[in-house]
Design a protein that fits this description.
The chain has 69 residues and is mainly alpha-helical. The chain has one domain. It is 52% helix and 0% strand. The chain contains 2 helices and no strands.
Length: 69
């Protein structure tokens, strides 16, 4: 259970960081800003691991679906 709680916390943190880093009020649909994970304080390897974990959770039917931006 503790492992799942950490996973959920990491997922929520990643989602919040992504949503807060996008200037959605000013961005046009075709002009969304892009950045490398490292330039915004994240690690590409950890994001890849999170994406793999999400895929596994969906495959095992523990999650109905997931989106990682």
């Amino acid at each position: 259970m503790r492992h799942i709680n950490r996973f959920v916390a990491a997922l929520l943190l990643a989602m919040a960081t992504t949503l807060l880093s996008l200037p959605s009020a000013y961005a046009q649909p075709n002009e969304l800003p892009t950045a490398t994970p490292e330039s915004v304080g994240m690690q590409a390897g950890k994001l890849d691991a999170l994406a793999q974990r999400l895929s596994k959770e969906v495959e095992e039917k523990k999650l109905a679906g997931a989106v990682l931006l």
